[in-house]
Amino acid sequence: MKFNNLRTGEKILFGIFALMLVFAGISFVMMEIYRSRLNHPMYEITTQFDFTPEGKVGSELFRTKGCTDCHRAVRNGTNHGVVLDGIGSRRTLDYLISFLR
Questions:
Q1: Could you give the CA distance from residue 42 to residue 35 in angstroms, rounded to a whole number?
Q2: Residue 1 has pLDDT above 60, yes or no
Q3: d(Cα 13, Cα 18) in Å, to the nearest integer?
Q4: DSSP string, 45-60
Q5: Tell me: the pLDDT tens digits for 2-37?
Q6: I need a labelling partner for 35 at 20 to 30 A (CA). Which of 5, 26, 75, 91 fits?
Q7: In whole angstroms, how far apart are CA 24 and each of 15, 29, 37?
Q8: Could you give the 3-state DSSP secondary structure of residue 6?
Q9: What is the pLDDT of residue 16?
């Protein structure tokens, strides 16, 4: 394709597209340079899991018994079933035991 055969509007459109690609490339390179110079993560890690001893046992059971096939909790599993993150904070122990029976 020769650029001499293009209409003026097509040349402008290709020029704008080329400028956008150049700008995206420059932005990516600048972001990578900035990120490589940081001494800390770019985004703060806000999720942490401080389990009680019983919670650690429960988390291990959750993974070993295949609950992750349907449910998701603590970044494990799928979203096919109910997401169980924080369920202990939203429901009482009595409710959970009666529900599971």
A1: 7
A2: no
A3: 9
A4: --------HHHHHHHH
A5: 667 888 898 899 999 999 999 999 999 998 888 888
A6: 75
A7: 14, 9, 20
A8: coil
A9: 96
